[in-house]
Amino acid sequence: MTTIKKICAACAAAMLINSAALAAENDSEPSEVNADAIEYDMNTERVTATGNVMIKHGAPKENNPPSELNADTVDYDMKSGLVTAVGNVLLKNGTTKATGLKAMFNVNTQEAHLIGNVIVVREDMRITCDALASDGQEQMYADGNVIATQTVAPSEKYPDGDKRTFTGDHIDYYPNDRKHVVIPNGGIAKSDVEGTFTADQMEGWIDDEHYVGNGNAHLISLTRNLEAGGDKVDYSGKEEGKAVLSGNAWAFQDNNTIRGNRLTVYLADDEKLKVTEAEPAKPDNALEEFNKAFEATKNPKPAPKKSDTDKPSQDTADETKPAEESKSADEATDNES
């Protein structure tokens, strides 16, 4: 291998790893390239590495090894900035790993694509799909048979831990926004502990245990033997423990069913269903006054009862009392005679 080929291959490796969002911030850190063959075409400004390609970038750090790319073939077009890796692609950066049959990166836009049997593992999340794209700004788009799984470690709330699964034809994932998941075409969110949640359109913030479903939303809580649904369900399970149901809303628990246009289901500590129905809208003042006057004409108030002031005064009673006593005395004398 000539010196110029080594230099160009090393530069291509550094740029390739950086474009995949797997490189260290400092591009001056060392890079390592290994392959069965590496070629550089000065006319087309293209670098090609074939056969057991392994490219590393960055110096080893504590709990953060160098970024690494493995593939059967790696091709880098320096003019367009496009890097293509084909065959048994494996990208690694710290605890983040991504595999696929083919990967494409653009070093100028930082966009990345993985195609074919894609598996991405990042912290406690694992995503499998047919294709995955990243805009280079911490946003991922997964297409085709998407399954995203989060493994929750044991805690006070989940003594045995939990596994949460999100499935759909397409899922948008924003890992730095409280693990924000959007399933625009409908899907299923499932917790081994809590139950399942389905809707025509869904989104959720996994860190907050907050999920919103629009269109035929259906919630099943295993721990509370509860089913609920409506046109929209807004579920919060982390702190408040409640679900707000709106539009043809209903809730069912232990043979008890409640229906309404808008219901708030409180998931009480005693695991019993507690529901409040939204208060009806209050009428404006003019209509309220009219209704009062109308009701008054329909149902006139009864005549007021005599009050204590209508009773004879104590003085009047005292004036009549001696006469009554005198009459009683005369009646007694007559009886004696």
Distance between the termini: 158 Å
Query: What proportion of the residues is helical, as a percent range?
Result: 10-25%
Element string (H = helix, E = strand):
HEEEEEEEEEEEEEEEEEEEHH
Q: Largest beta sheet: what is the strand line-up?
A: 10-11-14-15-13-12
Number of distinct beta strands:
19
Mean pLDDT across every amino acid position: 76
Shape: elongated
Unreliably modeled segments: 1-27, 278-284, 319-329
Tally of DSSP helical segments: 3
Biggest sheet features: 6 strands, antiparallel, barrel
Beta content comes to over 45%
**Radius of gyration, rounded?**
39 Å
From the helix content, strand content and strand pairing, which structural class follows? alpha+beta
